[in-house]
Amino acid sequence: MSKKRLSIVDIANNLNISKTTVSFILNGRAKEKRISTDMVEKVLKYVKEVGYKPNSLAKSLRTGKSNTIGLIVEDISNPFFGSIARLIEDKAYKNGYKIIYCSTYNDTQKTKDMINMFRDRHVDGYIIAPPQGVEEDIASLITESMPVVLFDRYLPTIDTDYVVVNNQFSAYNATQYLVGQGYKNIALITFANDQTQMVDRIKGYQMALKEHGLKQLIKELPFAEDLTESITAFLKSRKGIDAVLFGTNRDATYGIKIMHSLGIRIPEDIAVISFDDSDAFELHSPPITTVAQPIEDMAEHIITILLDKLNNNGVGTKNQSIVLHTDLVVRGSSQPAKK
Amino acid sequence: MSKKRLSIVDIANNLNISKTTVSFILNGRAKEKRISTDMVEKVLKYVKEVGYKPNSLAKSLRTGKSNTIGLIVEDISNPFFGSIARLIEDKAYKNGYKIIYCSTYNDTQKTKDMINMFRDRHVDGYIIAPPQGVEEDIASLITESMPVVLFDRYLPTIDTDYVVVNNQFSAYNATQYLVGQGYKNIALITFANDQTQMVDRIKGYQMALKEHGLKQLIKELPFAEDLTESITAFLKSRKGIDAVLFGTNRDATYGIKIMHSLGIRIPEDIAVISFDDSDAFELHSPPITTVAQPIEDMAEHIITILLDKLNNNGVGTKNQSIVLHTDLVVRGSSQPAKK
Questions:
Q1: Which of A56, B59, B188, B257 to pair with A95, CA 20 to 30 A apart?
Q2: pLDDT (tens digit, 9 = 90+) per residue, B300-318?
Q3: What's the CA gap between B235 and B227, in Å, rounded?
Q4: Residue B61 is assigned to a structural domain of this protein
Q5: How many structural domains comprise chain A?
Q6: Would an 8 Å CB–CB cutoff place A293 in contact with chain B?
Q7: Contacts of A234 by beta carbon, 8 Å cutoff, 6+ apart
Q8: Cβ contacts (< 8 Å) between A121 and chain B: which residues?
Q9: Does any domain span residue B234?
């Protein structure tokens, strides 16, 4: 294991002076404590010689600040969360903060564990895309006056800052677009649970179809390791589907691979729109129409809100709910072949 | 800011007993210190009532262990690093470790800063995909007997554990495959610097071409925000290229988008192979042939080596250099159109 770092006690022993004196000098309180200039010079010279570095962990115990932010995402390998994480980390670093992160895979218990571990490590604030079931844990952070910013989804019973997109309108708008292109049997294939973003996306899809008296065709997917079987079964059993809206990039990535393997042509047989833009969708032939989230803006709002709270000690800042707007990026996958 | 956590001092004051007594009881040393059972019960009862949680930060100062691993990647939003990070974090969590991470973007100064910050936070070990110029910093970690595992690339002058793939053979093999398919003007478009993985990929490409007496066509890219201009200029100026090997997934993602926009057909006009597999390459029409790195194996080796060192306090464990083999995943992008 690591050699023992030189501590204040070591310095005091080596110079044969008191630990308190060393501590006052290193913390810039020599003048206040009427310590002689000679003594200050002696200590600082020695410290420079031996290359002592103040222990920020000990400092964090004294000040209660760790300059660390806990980031809890669903899955760091998902391009949506990876891109947000990159931007948040970049902006945090420029403001002197480090990021401790974890992926939840929507596992409630893991998320609870991580919140506790982060709390024990004295993170200064939290950025969380919460699974269900962690309301109490987050409420308890807020009771302790810890800054918490939720993103991607929020918890309806918890009053805290959050940054999300207008999921309901975005799904409504994408579905409307498909109807406008002449599609009549529009399915929604989506990861489904009680998280706000997924509930809202389903609602938006339903609203658009209701408006036009069209039938709903919803395939709800579990948050499973492999979605191949359930999507394949759905696409095989439902004849006549002419368009699919995918609720997340993960659902669509599976869906498109399965369409290829089943010989379903996009858009000739089935038109496709997916939530979340990515290189995979842009590179696909034809390129996939997407509901693009404003990732840069989301990261900017998240970090700005959090830093504001950290810098003002949360005093006088009301919680903010930021709802950003998505872009429907229309590409070849949602346009009917010309007849 | 957060309300003050209840400390051992608070408990001692509230119960009107000494801080040392509380500390001995909470650290399970009551018997050893001959503290009465009554006193132990009194303290534990009180602690339960007020919901005191032991401060792991303070504990980490005592024990020197933080159960935190510092992970330093090039770019968390890159699918290669995102996937590795997910697997490492998952395996670390199952072994009771958390991950603090940062992206370097190959910025030497940022990497130095982060190593120092991680050291100040008492991380127990480091997993690093190092940029150049951090040799001294890593050597100094090793001098302090800190476990350090490098991955993706290594530092030739530093003796530490690392996990990489056989980059030279992989590039040689991919280029050989293109030659075997009948291509004669094979370009290498690649992020280029002195990092071992990039040097080896270039060498492998050169070896294959030399073997067949074919001309080298290398476009070295900087690690820039946007690669559009430099790749476009290269593809426009070099007539007669019939195949391209891309050195990284990032280079290929740009390259393929640019080929689309220039009307270059894959593989009819130019065949394509890229390092690093991803959904984007699998979904592309035609799907892109890739040199797939064994990400799961890499993560497994990295975390196993690190945990071994942590558990054995590094005693008796020699450094390991793990060189894993890639797979050439042959798809439609590298097969000449039938004539």
A1: B59
A2: 999 999 999 888 765 557 8
A3: 12
A4: no
A5: 3
A6: no
A7: A187, A189, A219
A8: 56-57, 66, 68, 98
A9: yes
The predicted-structure confidence for A118-136, as pLDDT tens digits, reads as follows: 887 788 999 999 999 999 9
A4 has pLDDT over 80: no
**Complex confidence, ipTM:** 0.75
Do the chains contact at A285 and B282, CB–CB below 8 Å?
Answer: no
Q: What CATH number should be reported for the domain holding residue A305?
A: 3.40.50.2300
Amino acid at A163: V
Residues 311-330 of B with CB under 8 A from A: 313-314
Nearest CA in chain A to B66: A121
In B127-166, the residues whose Cβ lies within 8 Å of chain A are 144-146
Q: Is residue B235 within 8 Å of residue B246, measured between CB atoms?
A: no
Nearest Cα residue to A40 out of A21, A18, A54, A60? A21
CB distance from A257 to chain B under 8 Å? Answer: yes
Q: Do A115 and A33 fall within a single domain?
A: no
Q: Do B3 and A90 touch (CB under 8 A)?
A: no
What does the pLDDT read at residue B339?
A: 43
Contact A68 B122 (CB under 8 A): no
Which residues of chain B have a pLDDT value below 70?
1-6, 27-28, 51-64, 313-316, 337-339
A261 touches B: beta carbon within 8 Å: no
Residues B17 and B45 in one domain: yes
The answer to whether position A61 is within a domain reads: no
Q: B321, B166 in Cβ contact below 8 A?
A: no
CA of A193 vs chain B CAs: smallest distance (Å): 23
Q: Give the residue among A330, A291, A290 at the shortest CA–CA distance from A169.
A: A291
| A180-206 tens-digit pLDDT | 999 999 999 999 888 999 999 999 999
Diameter over CA atoms, chain A = 93
Asked whether the predicted pLDDT for residue A61 surpasses 60, the reply is no
**Closest listed residue to residue A231, CA positions, set A241, A240, A220:** A220
Q: What is the DSSP letter of A186?
A: E
